[in-house]
Automatic annotation (TrEMBL), chain A:
<keyword id="KW-0804">Transcription</keyword>
<dbReference type="InterPro" id="IPR019775">
    <property type="entry name" value="WD40_repeat_CS"/>
</dbReference>
<feature type="compositionally biased region" description="Gly residues">
    <location>
        <begin position="99"/>
        <end position="111"/>
    </location>
</feature>
<dbReference type="InterPro" id="IPR036322">
    <property type="entry name" value="WD40_repeat_dom_sf"/>
</dbReference>
<feature type="repeat" description="WD">
    <location>
        <begin position="582"/>
        <end position="623"/>
    </location>
</feature>
<feature type="region of interest" description="Disordered">
    <location>
        <begin position="343"/>
        <end position="395"/>
    </location>
</feature>
<feature type="domain" description="TFIID subunit TAF5 NTD2">
    <location>
        <begin position="169"/>
        <end position="296"/>
    </location>
</feature>
<dbReference type="InterPro" id="IPR037264">
    <property type="entry name" value="TFIID_NTD2_sf"/>
</dbReference>
<feature type="repeat" description="WD">
    <location>
        <begin position="498"/>
        <end position="533"/>
    </location>
</feature>
<keyword id="KW-0677">Repeat</keyword>
<feature type="region of interest" description="Disordered">
    <location>
        <begin position="1"/>
        <end position="58"/>
    </location>
</feature>
<feature type="repeat" description="WD">
    <location>
        <begin position="425"/>
        <end position="458"/>
    </location>
</feature>
<dbReference type="InterPro" id="IPR007582">
    <property type="entry name" value="TFIID_NTD2"/>
</dbReference>
<feature type="repeat" description="WD">
    <location>
        <begin position="540"/>
        <end position="581"/>
    </location>
</feature>
<dbReference type="InterPro" id="IPR006594">
    <property type="entry name" value="LisH"/>
</dbReference>
<feature type="repeat" description="WD">
    <location>
        <begin position="666"/>
        <end position="698"/>
    </location>
</feature>
<dbReference type="InterPro" id="IPR001680">
    <property type="entry name" value="WD40_rpt"/>
</dbReference>
Amino acid sequence: MAAVQDGPIEPEPENEIKTEASNEFPGNPGDASGGVPPTAPVAAVATEKPAAAATDSTERQTLLAVLQFLKKSKLFESEEILRREAGLLNETGDSQGAAPGGAGLGGGGGAEPESGDASSVLSRVAGAVAVAQSANATPAPAKVAPVVTGGEDQPDVNVVLAAYSQQGDPVLYPVYYSGLKRFIDSVLDCHRAELSQVFYPLFVHMYLELVYNQYEKEAKAFFDKFHGDQECYYKDDLRILSGLTKSEHMKGNETLLDFRTSKFVLRISRDSYQLLKRHLQERQNNQIWNIIQEHLYIDIFDGMPRSKGQIDSMSGSLAGEAKREANKAKVFYGLLKEPEIEVPLDDEDEEAENEEGKPKKKKPKKDSTGSKSKKQDPNAPQQSRIPLPELKDSDKLDKIMNMKEATKRVRLGPESLPSICFYTFLNAYQGLTAVDFTDDSSLVAGGFADSTVRVWSVTPKKLRGVKTAGDLSLIDKDSDDVLERIMDEKTASESKNLYGHSGPVYGISFSPDRNYLLSCSEDATVRLWSLQTFTCLVGYKGHNYPVWDTQFSPYGYYFISGGHDRVARLWATDHYQPLRMFSGHLADVTCTRFHPNSNYVATGSADRTIRLWDVLNGNCVRIFTGHKGPIHCLAFSPNGKFLASGATDGRVLLWDIGHGLMIGELKGHTDTVYALKFSRDGEILASGSMDNTVRLWDTVKAFDDIETDDFTAATGHITLPENSQELLLGSYMTKSTPVIHLHFTRRNLLLGAGAYNP
Amino acid sequence: MADREERKFAEVQRDSVKLMAESTGVELSDDIAAMLAEDVCYRLREAAQNSSQFMRHAKRRKLTVEDFNRALRWSNVEAVCGYGSQDALPFRPLKEGELYFVEDREINLVELALATNIPKGCAETMVRVQVSYLDGKGNVEPQGAVPTAVQSLTDDLLKYYQQVTRAILGEDQQLMKVALQDLQTNSKIAALLPYFVHVVSGVKSVSHDLEQLSRLLHMVKSLVQNPFLYLGSYIKSLVSSVMYCILEPLAASINPLNDHWTLRDYGAMLLSHIFWAHGDLVGGLYHQILLSLQKVLSDPVRPLCSHYGAVVGLHALGWKAVERVLFPHLSAYWSNLQAVLDDDSVSNAQVKADGHKVYGAILVAVEKLLKMKAQSWSVPVEGSVAVRERSFPGLSPPQEPVSEPGFGIASHLLQGTAGVPAEEPVPVQLPVMYRELYAFFGDSLAVRFSTGPGIKPRASRSAPSQPPDSKKEGVGPDTTRKMPQLTSSLTISPRQDSSPKNEPGLPAAQNSSAAPSRFQRSSSSSSSLQRSKPPPSKAAQRSAGPPREVFQKSRFPLPPVAAPFSFLIAGRQTGRRCQGRRFQTSFPQLHPPNPSAQPPRGYAHKLPVIGRMGKPVKRWVCSQYSLHLPL
């Protein structure tokens, strides 16, 4: 199946190697695994061909399997037809008849008994294959087991595991492994780092294979012997692995299934790859070679091998790095055009003179909006790419307010850092789990572990509910201040409690117009609350497991949620079913964020990857790997170009969305980063963490450093500047309070929030 | 490596599985039990891993029972009920047999329902804003500090605070008693804790006023003993205040008429009590305190009263502390002390008197050291036994092993845990130590050490069976003249080396009664304040006349005291070395009072066991005062 990955690459070099290899083959007869028939060099070449060069060994095998099935079912006619159509006129050997479908697949890369026939078939079909090859450029992991349900949520476990049934002598596994280790230690330095990437997935698969085949002792010995060699950032997974010692346990284990259903992706330069391949062929190390072919996806690139630092910065996710193709899609990261707003003159500030004020007002207004609206950002999506709700009058008013505030905004920079206000939740013994501020910073809401949601007004304006229906009917609906009149003064209070959930509230989000509040909870629901009546309006049921995060689109109406079921769902407030389901993460979706243009959503996951999804078509357009722990917060820069992510590893990573690259690593926090926020102009990134600090980072510099660089976007290789300490503008202690939310007011005052729990 | 792997996980033994199966009437073969056990382990690990994500999303660092139950629920397993309590669940061994269990006390619902001290539900959750950093620079308030206004105080709380502080620091003794008593038992003052701690930290500003200092220390004691308060990080502040009183050359001590010695003794006792009762909180401080004591001791410039404080402080921290710090230091210190003691000039009289105090304190400490050493030496330590023994005496208070880092009894068990530094100084052999000490103290040491029939290991061993008797008989005749010293040692030391349980009671009792009475515990009810003096007087014995006058007034009536003391030692020894079980069973009735340290029986029932949850405290308290405060 490595062949599949090699698809787009010219087969030429492969053939060369093969011939070289074949010359040496006669030298080592009798491989322990007994896979390769140690016959004539010609045969060896032939066997190798389907494995390495041939395009779609999977497809071929599927075909063979189907033929076999037809034959078994005595559907000779169909078999004949299919055979003819496929060009497989030659009868394939009966030896295959014995091999059940699963084993046939599993043995794909290896030299199973069928190899003889397969090779002969192949040599005949070479032409046809070459054609099919080009069509098969997308190597989807789902194809690992075409018989299986594909890359679905819960693949048929037994089938998935079945691939492990074929195994060599368990005693030799440590030998193989250490043999490979010795080899990799001996290669040139420049290749060593790259090839070392193979260790971890190999280790895991060998271990699992041993466990699956019930060599418990051997498995344990194998684990003990080699687990120390693995990169430290895999230690969480290793811990899970080490607990798994029985094949019966494998069935329910999600981590394991992730490993099986998805190929571990490695990026290796062509030179290094060929070194490895040649070595394995020389040693006839089929066991390892099989694993590499079946369970790894090796993304081969041309050029310099990467350094250890480069590799380390990108690896660490559950399933290896992202494939390069995964980040090739075009992303419209630009902002949408701001709607032209007629500025109601009387609304303008009273401070200006009446006569002069009007014309003056209008102009700056138009400029500020106009600058954005006049020329469309080439990177922005079509205005109507995603249908967005129309602006209501109140929205327009709010926009005007926003603009007014923006003129008074403090310009931040390394020289002028923001002031920080901290909102401390006192007596929150029930456990504060989520916080959100409204955009205008007038309300703050907290989600608590006791299932409640509480909303506070942080301005002198109290929270009031709407009057009862009876009272409302008495109101003069034509009066100008009807909106004021409908409010029930008697209900005014500083805070309101919202009851409805039946589990801890893990995520909370205000709608941009401040009329609604979303909350998601362990009870697997997302609830929409009205901030007019302070009641629950809708409970969105769709997730089957706890929902970890939810957020409103910046334009309202849509919202996104993600949870333990590994799926992120896009909803519209007036639909009770999700509009989109974004599935692909291999573990819980832990945080979800809307892109400022509302056309994309980013999700962070416990599989240590971040994915960017296109709301329009539901495609995954970016996969970012590099975090070494579950990701717990995300933030888009206000211009939509960049993404920041924070994880349990205490690091904040910066990503360039357009190029799909990691562009910065901000080290400093000593505990999980739970809050990230860009300042209103994007010059400063604030991060808040469990370690009771808020840190400010100079993003202008971080982005500049990269942008001036002529980075090789094509290869996707990044060398992170070692200057993350220079980017740190300040580190601010709270008073023994973990920071779980950060917010910049419209004037760039930084608000933090957290619960003080002595 | 393999070992490490294995130790990472909880393992469920095959036997446990079999037991459980039996309890439901199923017989399992070994094979099946083994497989089940392994599977159970795996499932446990899985559940633990799953539960961690609930913790992460709740943005906590501590995994709670609830997290675990959630994980179970989502994997379609029934939740485990009964572990959601906030209080620690003490894990106890059964006296006989290898049985361990989580204590599950019966709760008297009626009592609970009618209790008047139900904590009011915690205050309303609220949001308070504060400008923390202006322009990213100046801190409006010092960073990292605990918020001052954690709770906005209600009016009643404020009133209570004012009344109580006024009463404690005021003139009226009776009022002070009542206030202290209430401080010790009031369940609703958690919100005021920071304020009280702040008041206590005022010791530094009243170092001229002994009376105030001792009142503040009383306040510390009440706070420490209040079972409803979680002292948390405040305990550090309390400890530092206490240390201040013990170690600093207080302004008050300039006047020789001021009895600052008592204050220091009291402080030391308080210190040991804190370590006993809140070892889990202060465990990390143990080493630090040892260091600061050592520093004072090794600083010849410090006045003798500071040295005295250091010595009693060390003594209070247990004989291990004495061995580790004082003993190695003794030879160096000795020469200085000797110089002071040998100077007979008139101008030196006061200093010399002080010197005798120090001398006496050292002697007491060293004596205890020798005795404990003798015991530990002669009795091979048996871990589990000792643990059992420990856990027994103080049943009521939750007993964290860490809680008494320095205490003789269990300290050897605790090595490596937080409180006790893992490296033990190379143990000095007892004979060597004795010889060395003898060189300093001469006969006075010898006499003391060999005193009393009960001291020798053998004797002690036999003693346990009938402590009360041995108490009476053994003591009487020979110890008479040493009495004073003994009493002194009692006052300071008993709590640390012997089983801690009764100590807390002591302080409580003393505390509740007026200051003067607090020390009278043993026989010498007469002059509690002076009890610090005895050691010197003993020293005096050795060096004959002069010092005696100095301490004259502090003398106790000798005879009555003597008897209990020697018994004490015996009891202690027994407690220490004999198997806990035997010990325990032999004195079931004794257990409220500490068998070892409780000489006067009359007192015994009065000295409640105090722990954070200790019921006895309440009982004792309530019987004495019924205080209804508007909270």
